[in-house]
Amino acid sequence: MGSRPAVTSPSGACCGFAGFPDEASFFLGVRAMENLCANRSRPGGFHPPDQPDNPLWRNEWIPFLSDRDGWKGKFIDARDGRIGSWFVGEITVMGEYESLDHYFDSVTETLTKIADGSHPVREVARGRLLWS
User: Fold this and answer.
1) What is the DSSP letter of 16?
2) Are 76 and 61 in contact (CB under 8 A)?
3) Which of 44, 60, 67, 72 could form a disulfide with 87 if both were Cys (CB 3.0 to 4.6 A apart)?
4) Do 7 and 15 form a contact (C-beta atoms < 8 A)?
5) Is residue 129 pLDDT above 90, yes or no?
């Protein structure tokens, strides 16, 4: 699971480490977090007009994981530390994990299950685990 140099698109999305936690998502570096926040932030956040209690983006959210295009990913809510997920065009999932610690516990559990053979792995290609 090698690292790649950061790649930034005009929309401000960026990627960090290829292949972890899956083949389509990347942990973000600080500059990528800044770019993605700048791209998504609006005065008062970004709320669908018909669902003000289900925002698409709050300015207090700090993205830490994203696909290459910034269409989906995970964020830390700076107000309470919970982890959520966004996908452009869909309502954001809040409180997916209680904290970043719980998120990484989940990743550790998945990797442990893969190592002991109790989690389905599609294949190993060039030393990388590929799973769905």
Assistant:
1) E
2) yes
3) 72
4) yes
5) no
Give the model confidence (pLDDT) of 64-109 as tens digits: 998 888 888 999 999 999 999 988 878 788 899 999 999 999 888 8
> Following DSSP, what letter does each residue of 60-90 receive, concatenated?
TEEEEEE-TTSSEEEEEETTT--EEEEETTS
Dihedral pair phi/psi, residue 55, rounded to 5°: -70, 150
Across 13-27, 33-47, 73-87, 116-130, least confident range:
13-27
Decide: 67 and 26 in contact? Cβ < 8 Å: yes
- Non-local CB neighbours of 16 within 8 Å, separated by 6+ positions: 3, 4, 6, 26, 27, 28, 29, 32
Q: If residue 34 lies in a helix (H) or strand (E), which one and from where to where?
A: helix 30-40
pLDDT at 55 over 80: no
Residues in the chain: 132
Specify whether the CB–CB gap between 73 and 47 falls below 8 A.
no
CA–CA separation, 34 and 36 (whole Å): 6
